[in-house]
Write a structure and sequence with these properties.
By secondary structure, the protein is mainly alpha-helical. It has 3 helices and 2 strands; from the N terminus they run ββααα. The termini are far apart. Bound molecules: zinc ion.
């Protein structure tokens, strides 16, 4: 299936749904760690706050949420 990379927005082929192309794996991991660390300090942040604090796009943050890897706290995360 065709997936779109959340970092470079390149379309790439994979057998399963995904959000990151093979070229951005390192960035993906780094960003994930940054977002997770930020949420540890500020658990009730929304996507815009996280994006601004880490200087990444809100789109990217929301894609991480779609992946289900981030814990924004139950019901506290505002989907913008
Ligand atoms: Zn990419």
């Amino acid at each position: 299936m065709i997936n779109t990379c959340k970092h470079c927005r390149m379309q790439y082929y994979d057998l399963k749904p995904g959000y990151c192309c093979p070229f951005c794996k390192d960035i993906d991991k780094m960003r994930y760690e940054q977002i997770r660390a930020y949420l540890k300090h500020y658990p009730h942040s929304n996507a815009i706050q996280v994006a601004e604090a880490l200087d990444i796009s809100t789109y990217t943050v929301l894609k991480y949420v779609d992946e289900g890897n981030l814990d924004f706290g139950r019901g506290e995360f505002e989907r913008l």
